[in-house]
Amino acid sequence: MNARPIMIQGTMSSAGKSLIAAGLCRVFHQDGLRVAPFKSQNMALNSFITREGLEMGRAQVVQAQAAGIQPEARMNPILLKPQSDTGSQVIVNGEVWGTMAAAEYYRRKPELVPHVLRAYQSLAAEYDVIVIEGAGSPAEINLAENDIVNMGMARMAAAPVLLVGDIDRGGVFASLYGTAALVEPRARKHLKGTIINKFRGDVEILRPGLRQLEDITGLPVLGVVPWLRVDIDDEDSLSARLAGRAGVPGGVDVAILRFPRISNFTDFAPLETLPGASVRYVSAPGELGQPDLIVLPGTKSTLADLLWMRQNGLESAVLKRAAAGTVLLGVCGGYQMLGRTLRDPEGVEREPGASVRGLGLLPGDTVFAGEKVRTRMTGTVLAGPRGLEALAGAPVEGYEIHMGRTTLEPGTPPFCLVAPLGGGEAREDGAVLGNVWGTYLHGLLDSGELLARLWRALAEKKGLSPEEAPACDPAAYREEQYRTLAAALRQSLDMDRIYRILEEGI
What is the full DSSP assignment across 216-265? Predict the structure, then answer.
């Protein structure tokens, strides 16, 4: 028996589709249904490596976790990772399909329909419910002809659609009405209701507008979801978390460089859960200050972002802090930047033969290659940087996604010893030199013991009492957030009606 689908579309990007879809995944899971998420095409630089070594978008990872299942690449068969303003790397079924400009991708989209259908149908054969997420808005009428992610996907799956609007940005009634009005006539039957998201205030004030909206659209308003204070991973650089937070004066101060093509910034979300932490994203030298930890995160365009940092003065500011003893951490692309040279003989990121000088803080040289490394790893920390020696011995787990290979000068202390999850040959990863350390492992702070040791070491280095450094369990914290989200949706949405929509279908 095939699963019953329900689809969440939005009036625009960041209307809250991903969050509502994740919440519904948890509600259905709590109600005893086997539920899986699906998004045919995702555009994001936050990606994840599955147990099978395949790459997928972070939003569907979050939704799979909410559904209580392992993430799989078929939940997101197409992932676009922007490399410039007009071009992206195209990931299909978890593997690189090619790098192409927007016009070429649009022309070749029909080739991807069979991949989308096979992925969706295989999930539908195994689960009771599929929660499908759209992208952007179905009112993008210039893209409707070859659409495979909004109403085009709704037609392929015969899915009823719930349309979400963001009231916090203003104009929610106009955006919901306008979106519904611009949907193609053949897709109109898929629209089954609207949801107003991110509301602050007294919902009774909205009642007259809700009735009028129902009258003019012919669609029921299925609920008004309040502005939710849940801490769940975001999928792209529009995330509000990149604005950072002020933290507690006198607490541990972490500064993360906000590269133009920053990727996998959710690596550092666990730091934001710690009381007394100030986690800031900085993009100019004057914003850096004197933090206790500086992080160079991953990036989809390592060479371009290194040159950006050099040109705007952040490189000089970072080098000055490193010389003063501030601890520096580089992850993936950030790790590559900490080395001596970065070369691109095949033109993976820039013109063939390009070579860029690194920051020179680690004795390593990186060469980019066309084949992407995609592996989940587990192991043990071998050495921590100066002041954070207590990291040694901590278990670590994460995943690698990178196009470059880094060769270290013989005798350089590695950061950790890791092996592929599920078995395989162990090898060294990363490097430690003085107060500087780097690693290819994304998600390393999801390891609770490593996070706890890092926090205690930073707190002690800051002169804070060790008792102020709490125990850390990122997995338990994440589960608490999913339960909070599900409870909020049960309270604010008409779940009885949503279940009827799910049962009746199209």
Answer: HH---EEEEEE---------STT-GGGG-----TTSEEEEEE--TTEE-G
**487: pLDDT confidence band, cut at 50, 70 and 90?**
very high
CA distance 503 to 159: 11
Q: How far is CA 130 from CA 42, 61, 67, 455, 490, in A?
A: 16, 14, 10, 39, 18
Residue 36 scores a pLDDT above 60: yes
- Tokens 């972070």 correspond to 58
Distance CA 399, CA 418 (A): 10
Please check whether residue 76 is in contact with residue 61, taking contact to mean a CB–CB distance below 8 angstroms.
no
**C-alpha closest to that of 381 among 301, 307, 437, 298:** 437
Q: What are phi and psi of 499, to 5 degrees?
A: -65, -40
Query: Structure tokens of 14?
Result: 């960041």
Q: How many CB atoms lie within 10 A of CB 51?
A: 13
Helix 172-182 with 207-217: angle, nearest 10 deg: 10
Beta strand 427-429 with 416-420 is antiparallel
Q: Residue 21 to residues 151, 161, 423, 505: CA-CA distances in angstroms?
A: 16, 12, 34, 17
Residue 231: the pLDDT is 85
- Assess contact for 187 and 151: CB atoms under 8 A: yes
> What residues act catalytically?
332, 442
Distance CA 127, CA 461 (A): 50
Within 8 A by CB and 6+ apart from 506, the residues are: 158, 159, 160, 189, 190
The C-alpha atoms of residue 364 and residue 352 are separated, in whole angstroms, by 21
Question: What is the pTM assigned to this prediction?
Answer: 0.84
Is residue 27 pLDDT above 50, yes or no?
A: yes
- Note the pLDDT of residue 114: 96
Give per-residue pLDDT as tens, 99-150. 899 889 989 999 999 999 999 999 999 999 999 999 999 998 888 888 999 9
Rounded Cα distance between 389 and 382, Å, is 9
Q: Are strands 341-344 and 416-420 parallel, antiparallel or unpaired?
A: unpaired
What is the average pLDDT across 433-459?
Answer: 92
Q: What three-state secondary structure class fits 339?
A: coil
Residue type, 424: G
Alpha carbon 26 to chain centroid distance? 19
Average of per-residue pLDDT values in the chain? 92
Taking each helix axis as running N to C, give the angle between helix 17-30 and helix 474-492, from 0 to 180 degrees, rounded to the nearest 10.
90
How confident is the model at residue 153, as a pLDDT? Answer: 97
